[in-house]
């Protein structure tokens, strides 16, 4: 059995993959594959409608919001958010590589105020106690820093529209989503396969768009056409729908969060208790989704990865900008998989400690 700790594209529930395989063979008993039917047919219409409704419902979002299914990944949202909403100046919190890439794109459209950054310590913590200018068009945060293993546990209270890149912790915990004007996530971490990007948008914000924007880059197009202005990524949307349904069946975000907390606690406990291993992120900012750690003696890194792999634990090599290891513990990962990794770490410590 494989324990999949890969950062992304990442683990999905087994039942979701089985249902997707079935839909590719024979979609809804139609005798046709999901891959060869119209995106405007009744069968697919039911799919995108369930995905849309469930995406809003899980976060308790009402009619003031719309759920959009777009393409181009989170990286395209880095540009679309300022293209649509940066009229004069926007504020950004610099918490890592992705946050940095987001603010770089914003600079094409206007003034960017970086209100705080943790770059000085290789992004090992979440800056706090910063001020957001009250005349900013919006404030952009990255709720979970996939590469460095930090996560925002207390959402900022601001008077300007709040925007979040939630690519690696979307639907992983209960949040007050109504605090946000826009949330986006590339699906391939915690929502579905690569190829679709979810955007949750407060519709009234569209009134603040001042630029003339080409059709496919305007959120309004996707809102007005319920993501069906052009051909949407049919298969990734189907898988996301199955996964959203799965989350609901687990008991929603409350149950999913409890499971994620248990998994993270199990692994952080091992990191803290085994003298050979060290955590990377500041304790109070530790991520529940991407758990970064190192060995006191990096000469042992290769040996550890080999032993983990022999026990079926894959995808653990850390990002090159951090080194060490990263265990991604997304929704679909079972607690047994985390236990398998902890067992490897414990054994390894006995041998080398
Ligand atoms: C992976 C990731 C991205 C990039 O997503 P793409 O869909 O590949 O563009 C952006 N932000 C965060 C937080 C990520 O984890």
Question: How would the blueprint of this fold be written?
Answer:
Elements: E1 3-4, H1 14-25, H2 42-58, E2 65-70, H3 73-85, E3 89-94, H4 97-106, E4 111-117, E5 139-142, E6 144-145, E7 150-151, E8 162-165, E9 182-186, E10 197-202, H5 219-224, H6 234-250, H7 252-273, E11 277-279, E12 290-295, H8 301-310, E13 313-314, E14 325-328, H9 335-352
Parallel strand pairs: 1-13, 3-4, 3-5, 5-8, 8-9
Antiparallel strand pairs: 2-10, 6-7, 9-10, 11-12, 12-14
Helix pairs in contact: 1-6, 2-6, 3-4, 6-7, 7-9
Pyridoxal-5'-phosphate is lined by residues 8, 73-75, 98, 142, 146, 165, 167-168, 186, 189.
What does this structure look like?
By secondary structure, this protein is α/β, with parallel strands linked by helices. Helices cover 35% and strands 17% of the residues. The strands form four sheets. A seven-stranded mixed β-sheet has the order 2-10-9-8-5-3-4, with helices on both faces. Helix 6 packs across helix 7. The model has no long low-confidence stretch (mean pLDDT 98). Bound molecules: pyridoxal-5'-phosphate (PLP).
What are the defining features of this structure?
17% strand, 14 strands, 2 domains, Aspartate Aminotransferase, domain 1, binds pyridoxal-5'-phosphate, alpha/beta, Aspartate Aminotransferase, domain 2, 9 helices, 353 residues, 3-stranded antiparallel β-sheet, single chain
